C-alpha cells in the first residue's frame, strides 16, 4: 500500500507519519512537503532511513510537479495536511494561504482524480482524506458546539482558504464520485508545533523571562485535543469513514486562553523553576487583540464517536505536562 502524507514535515503531519509508520508495517509512506518555515525534518529522524519512507521536497502549488509525483508514486491513498496554518500570518499576507490551501488542494485532488479514474470510467481503489479545521464554522457565543451540520462562516483569510478547500473536496465526491472524506478538528497541542503558536509561545517567552503575550483579555475559548488523538481520529476516518462525509473532531476540553496560559505557568513553576523570575504568571501581559478574533470554538464530536468508535483517550493534564517538558528541552 502506497500512502502519501502532504505536509508531513509540519506539526500534525510529522506526528501522523510516525504514528502510521509504526502501526502499518506493510505500508510505504511518501511525505510531500515544501519545507516552509514551520517544517522540521528532524521530527522524522526515527523513520528517515527506512525503505518504507520517502521524502520529496515539493510545493503542491506546482501542478506539473504534483502530476509527476502522483504518476510515479501511484498512491493508493492520500492524507492531505499541507497548508499554511497560522491565522496571524494570513492576516498579514493572505496570498500564500490562497495559493497553498486552495490552489494546492485543487492541484492535488485533480491530479489524483486523473490518476485514479481509469479509461473504462471505473476507479482504481483509492481514498483521499482532507484534513481541515473547525475554524471554517466561524465563532460561537457562550453556548453550543460545532457539528457536521453547522453552516460555514469563515472569518479569517486562513479559515476562508480552508473552507474553500473543503468545498473543492466536497465537489469531487458529488460531481465525480471520488472517494473523499473530510475532517474538521479543533486546536491541537503536542510536540513538533512551530514556535509561533500559542502553547510554544507561552513556554518560550516564559523560559526567557520575557512578557507572555495574551490577546485581548484572554477571554477567547478554544477546545484542545492532543495531537496523537487527532492522528488516531484521522486513521479511523481514513479506514472506516463514509465516502463524501465529514467528521468533526474535538477533545471535549474547552479552555479560556488566559486559564490555559495560567495552567502552563503553574506547570512551568514545577518543571522549570527560575529564582530570578518567581511565579511565571507574573510575566503574563495582555496585548492588542487579533483583528476579527473568533470568540469561542467548541466541538460536538458525537458523530465520529457513535459511528466510528473514536474518542479522545489521552489525559489532558498529563499530556500537557509532557508537551511542556518537550518544549523545555527544545528551548533550554
Ligand atoms: N494545528 C492545529 O491545531 C490544526 C487543527 C485543525 C486542523 N489543522 C490542519 O492540519 C493541517 C496541518 O496543520 P499543522 O498545524 O501541522 O501545520 P504546520 O504549519 O505545522 O505544517 C504544515 C506543513 O505543510 C507544509 N506546506 C504548506 N504549504 C505547502 C505547499 N504549498 N506544498 C507543500 N507543503 C506545504 C509546510 O511546509 C508545513 O511543513 C493543516 O491543513 C491545518 O489546517 C491544524
TrEMBL record:
Alphabetical keyword list: Lyase, NAD
Cofactor(s) needed for function: NAD(+)
Gene3D superfamilies on file: NAD(P)-binding Rossmann-like Domain, UDP-galactose 4-epimerase, domain 1
Keyword DNA-binding on entry: no
Catalysed reaction equations from the record: dTDP-alpha-D-glucose = dTDP-4-dehydro-6-deoxy-alpha-D-glucose + H2O
GO MF term list: dTDP-glucose 4,6-dehydratase activity
EC number assigned by the record: 4.2.1.46
Pfam families the UniProt entry points to: GDP_Man_Dehyd (PF16363)
Domain NAD(P)-binding: 4-322
Family classification: Belongs to the NAD(P)-dependent epimerase/dehydratase family. dTDP-glucose dehydratase subfamily.
NCBIfam families: dTDP_gluc_dehyt
Protein name: dTDP-glucose 4,6-dehydratase
Organism: Fodinibius salsisoli
